Amino acid sequence: MSQLKLIVFDQEDLSVLSAHLQDAVLKVGDMTYLPAEKRFAAVLRRFDWQAALAGAEGSAPRPSYQRRQTAVRFERVLAAKVSGLDLKRKSDVLSLLAIEFRQARPDDPAGSVTLVFSGGGAIRLEVECIEAELKDLGLTWRSRSRPRHPVDDEA
After folding, report:
1. Which of 59, 124, 127, 137 is 20 to 30 A from residue 82's alpha carbon, by CA?
2. How far apart are CA 44 and CA 150, in angstroms?
3. Which one, of 124, 125, 67, lies nearest residue 93 by Cα?
4. Per-residue confidence band for 155, with pLDDT thresholds at 50, 70 and 90
5. pLDDT (tens digit, 9 = 90+) per residue, 89-115?
């Protein structure tokens, strides 16, 4: 499977980014906010949903469950606020559920991007506009199973 690279400039792009990063895991120490550069960056281990779903639909002999090391960065970040996370506990593992955007005002590109983690933690990035990039870094390894959610179990 080829490496994924996404450039994000609007809310629709951000929803695609969020889907690819759903269930990604990272350590608290694997993310940073650089105020002077107006940048937030993180290295995650994302679950490759694209490969898993392709296998489940029959285009592969069996589902391929794997994780990929991935970098994500947000530009034009004016502030970063943390809720429900202890930034001093660098080795704590977080599981990313979604990335959301709330526009400041209609017809204004500014707003807040929120990274929502399981267990109630979140990071809110105040941004001038949506500008982000996701890039797979090459390292891939097998996962024994795919992440499950209560909605999956009801279906």
Report:
1. 137
2. 23
3. 67
4. very low
5. 999 999 999 999 999 899 899 999 999
140 close to 120: Cβ distance less than 8 angstroms: no
Which pair of structure tokens corresponds to residue 36? 């002077």
Q: Measure the CA–CA gap between 5 and 45, rounded to whole angstroms.
A: 14
Helical (H) or strand (E) element with 39: strand 39-47
Nearest to 102 by CA among 14, 4, 27, 39: 14
Residues shown for the chain: 155
Q: Give the integer Cα–Cα distance in Å for 23 and 147.
A: 7
Whole-number Å distance between alpha carbons of 109 and 119: 30
C-alpha span between 96 and 82 (Å, rounded): 14
Could you tell me which residues come within 8 angstroms of residue 141 by beta carbon, excluding any fewer than 6 positions away? 66, 67
**Closest by alpha carbon to 143, among 79, 81, 65, 90?**
65
Residue range 69-93, pLDDT digits in tens: 999 999 999 999 999 999 999 999 9
Structure tokens at 129: 């506009």
Separation CA 69–CA 46 (nearest Å): 6
